[in-house]
Amino acid sequence: MALSISQLAKDHQEFVLTKLKEVEQGLHPSSTEDEELVRRAVFSVRNKSIVFERFNGVSSILYASVQDVRPASVEIDFFKEELRCNCPQIKWCRHQVGALLALYQYFDSVQDWSSAWRAQKSAQLKTLAADRSPQSWELMVGEVMKRLLPPGRILEGYGLSAIRTDALERLRRHMPYEREWQPLYKLFMELAILNTIWRHLNETPGHSLDSPYMKYFIDQSNQSFENILAELTNRSRLFATDPFYDALQELVREFLLERKGLFPVRLHLYMLLWAVLFYEKSRREQELVYLNHLENPPEEISLSSLQLLFYVLLQKEDLLQENLAQVDLSQMQELFELATFAQRAGESHALAVILRAILPLLEAFLQAVLPVVQRAPYVRQFQLLFDEIELTEKEEVMLYSAFGVYGIQPFSNFLIKKGRYREWAALHQLNPSSLSYLEMCGLKDVLQVEPATVLPLYHVYAMAEVTQKSRINYKQAVRIWKSMRSAAKRAGKTAYFETYMNTIRTEYKRLRALQEEIEKGNLV
């Protein structure tokens, strides 16, 4: 029986319409490349260059060939609801769009669809890019994003990064040729896209900001901002770019104050730009005045944190200390961001003031407020911050006490630096780990200076192996005892070690395998 394409198209009309809707969202009429793609797809339908060769009823796959400069083969899988083409183009190609339109013509007008698609074009991106101004750049982002994010569209979590990447790819085609302008263009587009996506998530019911996909999307964006800002700091600033910096200032302020959810994330980006990008004193003073006169801010906005930020930038240490005297545990996350900001901005005096205000609250924050899985990473970050300032011995003890078991390594280094070797050994007896970790905590340094203090530690680790009662563990115990023998020799306690090993042999005389390993190791 002959293949009835007309009937097949009508039977799968919903599939064809759905896929064409995806084409409309994925291809932008303001893009020259996309407009050319659709034009050629429509031409292939009119020219009857698309031939449906066969339909596999078992797999529900329709096979089509497209006569093009290079012939292409398209598979339309109605069961899996996808299209495949053997051409090298990623995502939509003219062959797939042409095959869809070849089916669409059996129940509607291809010309009408093409005209409706082109009617959505309000401005050519190329034309907007030629008019280099912040307003044109904003319009370019708007043109791209309104196609990718139509009002009311519910985004799957994995779609966040895909939309960001797609939008950036389209906009990078119109990047200025001058190298001086390129980092600024990339920063503007990255920030505008992030702001637009976040606004869409806020305004469209059904979205959650608390998901692994959202975290990945944020991490991607933050890494991109870091890279672009590194480029910008190595470039001289042109006078003609001033209006763009003004627009960026307003854009990041809008992102912080008008978007909703994950305030620490928004604050982090705001701080990042003010630490690196906006360094003029007059600009910073104007922003502080704006924030001081801000009326009825949303509940999640912490004006005190924003004011502290500009006290750091403007080196208003008296106001900084006065406000930090009133902080409590609920503000620790914001104070951590503020300390990181001060370090990045190179404000060492302000960093010392902030960290000393944090110190009394640190133990409660790390041990009670933070989830267990986040404690070790935060301890490492706090350690890097506190390494930047000079602490008294009392403050150092308070710091390492706050770290608890998550700060054993930095506390070990502190004890070695102070020559408190017995306390170092006691710390590791109370918190046994492994010999490799001991070496990370300064074991070799202690062996050089006071090897006798390490002997009890070796005993603890060797006994832990013996209690496992297997030959592999006995071998490991012998290795530890050999290290213990070297330490005893260095400390002038060879006789003590010989007595110790005789005692071990006597106590464990029934463990034949252990006795054999001790003899093999020449420990007696």
% residues in beta strands: under 5%
Q: Main β-sheet: number of strands, strand sense, barrel status?
A: 4 strands, antiparallel
Overall mean pLDDT stands at 87
Which spans have pLDDT < 50 for at least 5 consecutive residues?
none
Overall structural class, as computed from helix and strand content, comes to mainly alpha
> In DSSP terms, counting alpha (H) and pi (I) runs of 4 or more, how many helices?
27
Largest beta sheet: what is the strand line-up? 1-2-3-4
Helix content: 55-70%
What is the terminal-to-terminal distance?
A: 94 Å
| Radius of gyration over all CA atoms, rounded | 34 Å
Explain what you see.
By secondary structure, the protein is mainly alpha-helical. It contains 27 helices and 4 strands. It has a 4-stranded antiparallel sheet with strand order 1-2-3-4. The radius of gyration is 34 Å and the shape is flat. The termini are far apart. The mean pLDDT is 87.
Q: Keywords, please?
A:
single chain; 524 residues; four-stranded antiparallel sheet; 27 helices; 4 strands; 4% strand; flat
